[in-house]
Amino acid sequence: MEFHHLVRRIVQDGSTHAKWLNTLSFMENAGARKISKCEHPVMVTQIQLKHAAEEHRHAYYLKKQIGKIDPELCKTYESRELLAPVATRQYLHSLDIKACRYLQEVFQLTKEDLKYAAYLFVTYAIEVRADELYPVYQEILSEESSKIMVKSIILEEEGHLEEMINQLNEFSENWQLHANKILEIEKELHLQWINAITEEVAQLNYA
Question: Can you tell me the distance from the alpha carbon of 147 to that of 124, in angstroms, rounded to the nearest whole number?
Fold first, then answer.
């Protein structure tokens, strides 16, 4: 199922849309928690704190949007309240593990330096994905005259991507070469996630 069509089907069904919002909220929250886990015990930059705070805010904002559909839906991140829960929980975790494995082979880093490198490259890959996903979602929301909007998230994610590129330029002059490898890993995991969601949505009956 083509991504535009998938998102449209999701948006057109209230309970499925609530789960989609909750799934995105879960992933934003997981991203924020991973950024925090990557922090050095003392050498924490303002930009890392900013990113973690903004990802947490995105998670909260998306969760709050569910109330516009039905305040009683998706109050937690239990599996029954997520779309494709297994793939959703594995996505970012698998990306982190595979990216760390690649970065360690290439750069031979200390534990703390590997954490920072993973923060840079994994966050970059996620921001590239967010820059593709959220505009499509917003386009569908606008076409469907939905009360829900994600324009504020789009603007912040664009800013995040620019900030990640600036940090990566400082980290390595060959960062793009390695970032492309991480993007390849992310693309495969993202496809698995989307396929799992597509399979779940395809089983739903719409009026």
Answer: 30
